[in-house]
Amino acid sequence: MNSKNIKQWVLLAGICLALLSSCNKQPEKALAPGEIWPDNNGMHINAHGGGILHHNNTFYWYGEHKIEGEIGNTAQVGVHVYSSKNLYDWVDEGIALKVDEDEKSDIARGCILERPKVIFNKKTGKFVMWFHLELKDMGYDAARSGVAVAEKPEGPFTFIRSMRPNAGHWPVNVQDYHLKPVHDSIKPTYCGGKGCLPAHPDTLNLLGRDYTNGQMARDMNLFVDDDGTAYHIYSSEDNSTLHISQLTDDYLSHSGKFARFFADRYMEAPAIFKTSGGTYYLIASDCTGWAPNAARSARAKSIWGPWEELGNPSIGPDADLTFHSQSTYVLPVPGEQDKFIYMGDRWKPENPIDGRYIWLPIQLKNGYFEIEWKDNWNVNSAWKNN
Ligand code: GAL
């Protein structure tokens, strides 16, 4: 082979290598809010009102398993769990908590079981699930919380009990007027998403009314602080007021220490996250049932408050409806400082199984945060300035 031929061969080999390596290059993975999100079997992920546990380098996504048609708004199956190493590719791990075929069970098939969240207890080595529970055939009147436990993140979870939180305890910020008798003669004047209330919940003293049997608890979340203390955050007092309640060390009960915030603001869908600087942020929604509304946000230097409300963090088109979504969880990106992912649901109450997932990066600003719509985005490149 003469030198000209050698040069041609080297050139050809170079071109082939370049072509090969460009063929091997994987397209960048992306999250596409609002689209169908297929799991490893090609089925749209079925984990609504969900939350994520990051454990041993794996993400576990727990959520409400919905079925087709309006009946799908009640729990016919249970809590579904998926696992992923990268937040894009999800493996169906099956049903983590099954509804009970026994009609007498609190979690009998046909109950309403919403917003399940799972945390890991380092002291006991157990996985603890909390959820909003409405007893079968009682609409949303029961307003209870359920707790279940498992040895493994995929489950099976064993249902322990349901309750109304903090029976026989006053919140740390109880007011004198709560300690007075209940005003049951006052006529409701405010009609919100799930019923009517007087103009201000304190007029009716729902807190005092429920002191003995426990506080109402509907939309909820969990938050584990840096010191391992876990908190249950739930819409109480007929959704009018948010309660933040410390759990016991084993995460299986309420400790009796709790506080009430945002009285009369009707905040639902709460989710708390904490920055490296120690600021607690809250995202929540207004109370309009399955219909989307403008999100709420707030910040505090201590989880026990004072909490300062900041307004709707959504920006851009459809911000007033939070991009047709309602918050369900905020995921801190593991190993990254101050990168958080907003997780929301785009509900389809007429065919709940078709509900979509709206995940978007949360941009921290100086003392507040913003969420901007993206058609698709990648966790490695979504955050500005870092
Ligand atoms: C929403 C709530 C959902 C579900 C729904 C029922 O406000 O966030 O979790 O309870 O109401 O109407």
UniProtKB/TrEMBL annotation:
Short name of one Pfam family: Glyco_hydro_43
Stretches of the chain forming a coiled coil according to its record: none
Key words of the record: Glycosidase, Hydrolase
Gene3D superfamilies the record matches: Glycosyl hydrolase domain, family 43
Example GO molecular function: hydrolase activity, hydrolyzing O-glycosyl compounds
Signal peptide interval: none
Keyword Hydrolase: yes
PROSITE patterns hit by this protein: PROKAR_LIPOPROTEIN (PS51257)
Gene Ontology biological process: carbohydrate metabolic process
Family: Belongs to the glycosyl hydrolase 43 family.
Name of this protein: Beta-glucanase
Lineage summary: Bacteria, Pseudomonadati, Bacteroidota, Bacteroidia, Marinilabiliales
